[in-house]
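Good morning N.,

You mentioned wanting to compare the apo and holo forms, so I went ahead and generated the holo version with zinc ion. This is what I fed in:
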Amino acid sequence: MSIAAVYFGDDLGRYGFGDGHPFGPDRLFAFWAETVKQNLDKQVSIMTPVACDEKSLLQFHTQEYIDRVKQASVTGSGYLDSGDTPAFKGVFEAGSYVVGSDLDAIQRMISGETPRIFVPIAGLHHARRDSAAGFCAFNDCGIIIETLRQKYGIQRIAYVDIDAHHGDGVFYAFESDPDVIFADIHEDGRYLYPGTGFADETGKGNARGTKLNIPVDPGSDDTVFHQIWPQVEDFLIEFKPEIILLQAGADSIEGDPITHMRFSPAAHGHAAKHLVQIADEYCQGRILAMGGGGYNLNNLALGWNEVLKALITG
Ligand SMILES: [Zn+2]
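and this is what came out, ligand included:
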């Protein structure tokens, strides 16, 4: 067993939309070709994707919404939301493999088998408890936060998000929860979907101060990244989380077709590497990285593999 693991297999790759949609079903394979090219596949445990059961989806989503996705999955027509997230035949099953792989990953982490795990395609951070949004059917991030609580008794969970888009589906679900330590660097909501995540959104009620939203200007590059990144580290260390979740969306890398950010793959590697160090110090090494967005296949391949490399080498 190596210190790091990655999920790879057809069942995970199936979550994606056809017909020229930016979130295509080819993303997993673009990532994996680069993994093999860099020989990283020889240095990790390769895990087979696993489907989750409906009970797991209910940890976060409403029954009514789950039923709606199940129905749309049979017909494969129409949208799951108001126009960003088309239904496709098998979307329910494909989404279940994303969630199930995450759940399998945290089980392996908690049991002590493998502390650092990467699940590409996962990190569907826009879905709400009762609706799809922004290419996301089931919010695997929300489901694993709830599962870590309810099944494993883990309270203090850090969620770090470097995707170009604000992780609104996670943020608003846990806005009033003082034990979800949330840090999110994203393109300013005045310029990019979903239009949220302003600096004054720091959590509600007794959760005030447990959320760190860092919106950055369109065109922000690595200089900006390195100016703000230490804030994320200081913030996490202050709360001493028991586990770290990283949503490593590659759409914040320069050249993405639907955002205006200019980070490099190396910035993503830097983030992952430093989170591994914090996980080693405070979280018994436990860090789950999820692929998140990324619609330029080359960027996605390079950015996600920088993250995977950081999990392998620390
Ligand atoms: Zn994104």
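Residues 80 and 87 are 6 Å apart (CA to CA).

Happy to go through it together on a call whenever suits you.

Best,
F.
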